[in-house]
Amino acid sequence: MLEDKVVKVLDTSYYPGNIMIVLGLTATNGVDKEIAEALKASHVVVEHKVFPDGESYIRIPVSVDNEHVVIVQSTYKPQDKHLVELLLAIEAVKDLGAKTITVVTPYLAYARQDKRFRTGEAISIKTILRSIRCAGADTLIVVEIHKEHVLTYFTGTAINVSAMDALAEYFKDKVENPLVLAPDTGALPRAKRFAEIIGGDYDYLEKTRDRITGEVKVRPKTISVKGRVVVIVDDIISTGKTMALAAKQALENGAREVYAACAHALFVDDAYERLKKAGIREVVATNTVPVPKGVVSVSVAPYIAKTISELYG
Amino acid sequence: MLEDKVVKVLDTSYYPGNIMIVLGLTATNGVDKEIAEALKASHVVVEHKVFPDGESYIRIPVSVDNEHVVIVQSTYKPQDKHLVELLLAIEAVKDLGAKTITVVTPYLAYARQDKRFRTGEAISIKTILRSIRCAGADTLIVVEIHKEHVLTYFTGTAINVSAMDALAEYFKDKVENPLVLAPDTGALPRAKRFAEIIGGDYDYLEKTRDRITGEVKVRPKTISVKGRVVVIVDDIISTGKTMALAAKQALENGAREVYAACAHALFVDDAYERLKKAGIREVVATNTVPVPKGVVSVSVAPYIAKTISELYG
Predict the structure, then answer these.
(1) Inter-chain touch A120–B95, beta carbons under 8 Å
(2) Distance CA A109, CA A150 (A)
(3) What 3-state DSSP class applies to B234?
(4) What is the distance between the alpha carbons of residues A296 and A36, in angstroms, rounded to a whole number?
(5) Looking at the complex, does the CB of residue B268 fall below 8 Å from at least one CB of chain A?
(6) Does A41 lie in the same domain as A90?
(7) DSSP E strands: which ranges in B87-146?
(8) How many domains, chain B?
(9) Residues B16, B153: one domain?
(10) pTM to 2 decimal places
(11) CATH no. for residue B85?
(12) Same structural domain for residues B265 and B140?
């Protein structure tokens, strides 16, 4: 499938083999440097400031004329500033003569507003993806996007890198034969991928409300948690409420240990405390966004680098 | 010239005469309501919230199918959030079937980064204008943009409404035969327009540095300020430093009174205090951005409404 996507923007004359610039913008969390090292590419950090009135200033401090440029910018909070800075940089790199522009947004904001849940709503992710394309990106690489199908709004080549590989690798030496749980049926493919790497079984959580007591129960659809090491996996942890409820009930129902793993640890307010209080032994996330203290961070950079090298290989 | 621009997007079948929706977004400073009233159009306020993680949510609460929609959004601080919200709204309105989309950004951020002052710089205003177009705007109306020529980056119809008219009208009953000064030669057309409306003469300020003492002098190029009522006009007051220095020296050189007038009162930090301390009698700005306490605000809405009615007339 990757092959199919690649032919859309690449032809054989594109990649000279060893010239590539990895340009880190204002919100990379170190991923840019790791990608550059893995690819043996030049690592360049954008020149940046914010004017007294609040406008951002972006300058590309090296010549990118006729170069393959990989722009790395995550879009965590303040999302809109990081997005606008990304657009400014893409257009500048294009204007300055880059041969190809590959944009890497480890965390892409606005991905959850992927349809009109109510009439009249903006499909925000569509606008964001179209703006990135319009500014001049040929290829877009994201990590563990909420719904992969939204990438069709980006009319160039768009690739979703799974974060489950990096997370599962971390857990390999830590847990044996775990039960991997997705918070809902839509997220089941994540649990499946994770379970296949680590060697365990997987299921999704089903929420039911007791008709008499009104109590909400969150349980795996078919597999019992009794005596099991449980890893609950998700793309995003925001408030952590769903994750905390699932963990608490898994422990009540006899799970031996519960771990939480996610790609993007947005962690609004006291999300981490909520998870710890629910009895979760360890919270693991990737480095697509800076993680709060206490959360273990694993890097997705090698997987992004591999994707880039396959694109240009 | 307006005529030339209009034919690009309008044909005779466009405007049914009385159906138009003016949609106010999240940063209008009341201009949306005034425009709607002047045009006898429906005034609609966007539904809006910010999620706990910081992402904006935009919903158009009325049907815009087959309608002429005027979207009003100024882009003062936080500029990037207001810009992203504008893009989300444009795309939604377009998706929802609007017949035409006219975007009014009374203050358009990033307009001063209009060229590469140094190699490698982003031409920020180009990216902003292209993004607005790409999202789906047919027509763009701005007020007193820093350099009008940048509007060519917007490939639809783009119109710059002068703020000098509203400002000069305010001063008409206040001052007689003033000397209208632009802070530099590039801004001279603003002073000229202002002076022609109010009936006075105009000049621009020249900065010279004394070779021996190093003292910086700011004086009109040819006309003496002695005994004159002086109005210094500019597009933006940000720190107010240039304006304060010019006012102070005008008063030292015998000006009777000094007024400051601008389109966009960004007023970083203690800009207003700086101007008052320099002896400026009154600071007047338009309502393209909310003005700080003490600054007189005059409305540009009637001039924007007039431009829209000419477009659709």
Answers:
(1) no
(2) 12
(3) strand
(4) 23
(5) yes
(6) yes
(7) 100-105, 139-143
(8) 2
(9) yes
(10) 0.93
(11) 3.40.50.2020
(12) no
Residue A244 has pLDDT above 70, yes or no: yes
Q: Are residues A16 and A148 in the same domain?
A: yes
Is residue A46 in a domain?
A: yes
CA distances from A26 to A31, B91, B120, B142 (A): 11, 26, 16, 29
| φ, ψ dihedrals at B232, nearest 5° | -95, 125
Which of A9-18, A134-143, A167-176 is predicted least confidently? A9-18
Q: Which domain holds residue A156?
A: 2-162+301-312
Task: Quote the CA–CA distance of A243 and A275 in Å, as a whole number.
Answer: 7
Q: What is the DSSP string of chain A?
A: -HHHHHTTT--TTS--SS--EEEE-S--TTHHHHHHHHHT-EEEEPEEEE-TTS-EEEE--S--TT-EEEEE----SSHHHHHHHHHHHHHHHHHTT-SEEEEEESS-TTTT--S-SSTTB--HHHHHHHHHHHHT-SEEEEES-S-GGGGGGS-SEEEEEPSHHHHHHHHHTT-SSPEEEESSGGGHHHHHHHHHHHT-EEEEEEEEE-TTT--EEEEESSS--TT-EEEEEEEEESS-HHHHHHHHHHHHTT-SEEEEEEEEE---TTHHHHHHHTT-SEEEEETTSPPPTT-EEE--HHHHHHHHHHHH-
A223 touches chain B (CB under 8 A): no
Residue type, A138: D
Give residue-wise pLDDT tens across range A143-182.
999 999 999 999 999 999 999 999 999 999 999 999 999 9
- Please measure the distance between the N-terminal and C-terminal CA atoms of chain B and give it in whole angstroms: 15
One domain, residues A185 and A271? yes
Catalytic residue list contains A147? no
pLDDT-based confidence at A123, cuts 50/70/90? very high
Q: Are residues A67 and A127 in the same domain?
A: yes
List phi, psi (to 5°) of B24.
-85, 130
Contact B83 A88 (CB under 8 A): no
The tokens for B301 are 């809405």
pLDDT surpasses 70 at B152: yes
* A267-310: pLDDT as tens digits: 998 999 999 999 999 999 999 999 999 999 999 999 999 999 99
Contact A159, A307 (CB under 8 A): yes
- A177/chain B closest Cα distance in angstroms: 34
Give the tokens for residue B149: 């020529």
E strand spans, B221-256: 229-237
* Mean confidence (pLDDT) of chain A: 93
Q: Choose among B202, B200, B208, B204: nearest CA to B183.
A: B204
Asked if A61 reaches chain B (Cβ–Cβ under 8 Å), the answer is yes
In a domain, A292, yes or no: no
Q: What is the ipTM of this complex?
A: 0.92
A126 lies in some domain = yes
Do B14 and B67 fall within a single domain?
yes
Same domain assignment for residues B156 and B23:
yes
* Residue A176 lies inside a defined structural domain of this protein: yes
Spatial separation of the C-alpha atoms in residues B186 and A187, rounded to whole Å: 58
Q: Which of A121, A236, A264, A266 to mutate to test binding with chain B, by most B CBs within 10 Å of its CB?
A: A121
Tell me the average pLDDT across B58-86: 97
